[in-house]
Structures are given as C-alpha cells and as structure tokens.
Amino acid sequence: MLARNFLLGFTCSAPSWRVLVGVLLLLGAALPAVGQQRRPLLHVSQGQLPNDTSQEDQTRFSLVEHPQQGKVLRVDYAPGDSFGMGRQSDNWKPFSAIAFEAWNPANASVGLTLGVKHAGSVSYETRVDLPLTLKPGQNTIRIPLAELKNVNGSAPDLAAISHWYLAAEKEKSPTLFFGDIWLVGGAGNAPGRPSAVTTDPARLARIRAAQMPKISKPVFFATPEADAILSALEVFPADNAINQTIEDWPLHPQSQAIVASIGADKPFRYNPDMGFLLVPPNQRRVAVDIVSYPEESDPGPYPAPDDLPIEGWPAGFQQSDQPMPTLREVQTDMQRFDGDRHAIVVDPVGGKLYEFYIMRREPKGWVAAQASIFDLKSNKLRPQGWTSSDAAGLPVFPLVVRYDELQRGMVEHAMRVTVRRSRKAYVHPATHYASSLTDENLPRMGERLRLRADFDIRPFSPPVQAILKGLKKYGMLVADNGIEWAISVTPDPRIPNLHDELRKVKGSDFEVVVSPH
Question: Which residues make beta-bridge pairs with 514?
C-alpha cells in the first residue's frame, strides 16, 4: 500500500519495483537547506502545482501522496511540452543555485531544458535555455545561478525573473517525478567562499583501504574488535553533511548573539553517554514495543541482542558515587536510572543503524519510546517534521566521539552537542525542533558550530587535541536540549577523563557557521 499510488502507469519486474519504492521515498524531503538560505520555486510538498505549460492542458501533472514523505509531483509530458511557473516577477539574486530531486523511471536517460525568461528577455536569444539530463533512477540536480547565461551569451537579469520552465525534448513525452524545487544558498556567502561540497579524500581513502573483519556475533563497542570494525566502516556517503569539512564556511550573521545565548562564558564539556553494539547482518530480529512515538518510528522487528548497552553503560556509571549497577539492572531500570536511555545497534556489513529512545527491558521483552532506522549508505533524512531518538531528528551514532578516533589523532566527522535553550526551528540536516521559543538569537536544531581557527590547541593532551582538531574541521551540530556545550563521547573505560582539559575551552571560542551549498 505504501507505494501503490506512486506506481500507476509503470510495469516493472519485482526487483525494479523494490528499487523504485526505495528511491521514491527520498523525494518528498528533497534538499533541505539552512534557514533563510532557501525559498521554494515550486513547493510540491505543500501542494503547489505548476501554473504554466506551453501546450495548454496537454501535459498532465498530479500530486502523489506518500504517508511518510509527503507529496511528489508526477509529470506526464505531452511531446516536447514544458511545465513551470509563469506570470510572476521574482528576484533570484540573493541565492546561489536551483536545487531539486527528480526521478526518471525509464531505462534510458531523459533530456530536459531549463528555460528562464526575465525582464531582459525580448526574444529566444535573450533568455536562458540550459540543457539537463536525468539519468535512470534518482537524480540530485543543483544548478549554480552563476552558470545561467542567455542563449546569446549575455547575462540574464536575475533580479526580475518572469517565467521558468522545464521542457521535454522535441517529440519526447516522458513521465517523471519531482520533489520541491528550491532556490538555495547565498545568504551570508562571502566572496571567494567555495560553492562545492568539501570533504577529506584522505579520510575516505583510509577507510576504504581498511579490511572489514568478519562479524559472527554481537561486538561490544569498547573493545579492540570493535575498533577494527569501525576503522573500516564508511558512515554515510562522503558528501553527507556530517562528513563535510567546514573550515571555509561563512559565519552566520548572528553568530556572536547565538553563542551568547548558549553561554559565551560557559565551559565546554562532554557526556560519556552513547554506547552501542555492533551486530552481524544475520542478527536475529525481535519485536520492540514502541509506546510514545509509533507514528514517527520505523517499523521493526529490530536486531536488539540481550546484551544491548543502555546510555551511559559502563563508564558513565563508574563516575557516579553510587554502587556500580549491572547491565541487566540498567536495562530493566530496576534502580530507576533517569535519562534518555538511548540504545544503539549498528550493522556494519549491512550498512544499517538502529537507534532507540527510552529503551528498557520488561518481562515481555524490549520497550522503547521511539525507534529510528538509518541507511548508512544513503543521505536520506528523516521525513521533515519527524523526530528520531534525538530531538533534532538526527542519527546519534555518527556524531559520537569514539576511542578509535582519539587514538587516530582526529575526530573526522561532526559531533553531537546539546544546549539548554533552543529555538522552535530546525536547519539541515535536522528535521525536528523541540522548543516553543522563537528568539532568533537561540540556536536551531541542526545549527552548526565550529571551533575558531585561531584557537591554540597545542597545550592540550593528544586525546583532547583529536577532539579540538575535529571541531575546527567538521564542527558540531545542535542535536538536543541539555547541558550547554556538552558533546557526546562513548562511555568507554579506555578513554581517560577529559573534563578538566575540555573545561578550559569556553563558549566564546566557538562560532556559528552556515552552509554555502
């Protein structure tokens, strides 16, 4: 039932149907961008339809509803026809690109043309006519506005756009699907800032050169066996927001005010909280009773072994003045341990991540408030507006500092950080907020912070330097409400106490950045 409406008019083999369903799930939440750095040209997810075709009433378009991803636009082109938005005057100059997702269900590539008319268009020669190609399957399209030229080579008047459209090739009549079409980027950009996603190729080469050990049974995170597995695990594609390097990203125009709202004089710190279990791909699946957010949870069954650690186990409990509880006592909540009780399961071979919120073990089995499943081989986000086991809708595991990373000398991904007060807003890659406050000086869920480039890390120990280097290169993402300036570190007994050193770093040593992409 989930995909039936999408597939009207298609004839596919069984494997093709499964591929089609999987890819179409990505379309409704296409290309979210940061705060004021995006504006819809066609807001499909909000029910907007194109208002213009060149051959009136011949090209057919309809909104196809998906229960999780929202609306997707199906376009049945008349031969050589187009669709778009006309009869308007629009200023595109504040933005840097047009971005959208499109799906081509055919077995061959489909040619389109992006046409743009503006105040200076008096003929075909004085309008934009840019060819595009949609390959079979999913296509992520990003068109820099700097590349838009009139047919005669002159510059278009981007401050006064009257009409844009996507036209099919002459005598061709494809059926295509489109998500929201956005104007993105531009706000806060500075001259010379990069327009392409930047990643660290050395990091990717090192991971892909490592040999993934065989996994035949669950592996606890705080072990040499887990270290070897993690060194060969590629967590999300290289261009994922969590893996992007941000040293050259522009400052948020309200950076100083946002830092002040979190606490410029407050110390940096960490929580030894987020443990996990690595499992083989054939790990037995069990039922988990989802009791609080079933409508925003991914359905099971799930690989939840008997020895699944709960948040803070074991090192987080070793720091307490209370007697050390057993794992079973923590799992069953016999001593009423407070907290979010995250539980995390990683399938490195299958590339799947399973995360649970308020997980506990009862006589009848596992119970959780929420369950999220992430594909570690995909950039797919949670549906817009959905939570995850974290308030921001983000995955937890990829943002946690691990022992093997500290040993390697740098944390090579964005980190998870909490703040006491957040805004009623979220920014890519977050999908959910957890506040009723609207003060624009408060950080949004997903807000990106970076350690200042001029901060001197030389006096710090190697493990702390590994964290600080990562904060300069990859930054941290606001993921939940909690203690301000607290990042998540695995509760690994092998990690030394980092508190005294990290507290020497203050909130004023950070700055808020925005994506230029």
Answer: none
Contacts of 124 (CB under 8 A, 6+ apart): 151
Q: Write out the two tokens for 145.
A: 């506005």
User: CB neighbours of 215 closer than 8 A, spacing ≥ 6?
Assistant: 229, 278, 279, 280, 281, 348, 349
Contacts of 314 (CB under 8 A, 6+ apart): 222, 275, 324, 327, 491, 493
Q: Give 125's DSSP letter.
A: G
Q: Report residue 257 as tokens.
A: 């005010």
Residue 88 or 130, more confident: 130
- Decide if 361 is inside a domain: yes
pLDDT at residue 72, as a whole number: 82
Same domain, 164 and 42: yes
* C-alpha–C-alpha distance, residues 488 and 428, integer Å: 20
Residue partners of 255: CB distance under 8 A and separation at least 6? 511, 512, 513
pLDDT value for 57: 61
The residue whose two tokens read 């066996």 is 225
Among 175, 275, 160, 165, which Cα is nearest to 220's? 275
- Which residues constitute the domain of residue 508? 219-513
d(CA 385, CA 106): 31
Number of compact structural domains in the chain: 2
Please give the average per-residue pLDDT across 131-140, as a whole number: 85
Give the pLDDT confidence of 405-441 residue by residue, as tens digits. 999 999 999 999 999 999 999 999 999 999 999 999 9
Q: Are residues 270 and 380 in the same domain?
A: yes
At 22, list the tokens. 């999987």
297 φ/ψ angles, rounded to the nearest 5 degrees: -120, 150
245 has a pLDDT exceeding 70: yes
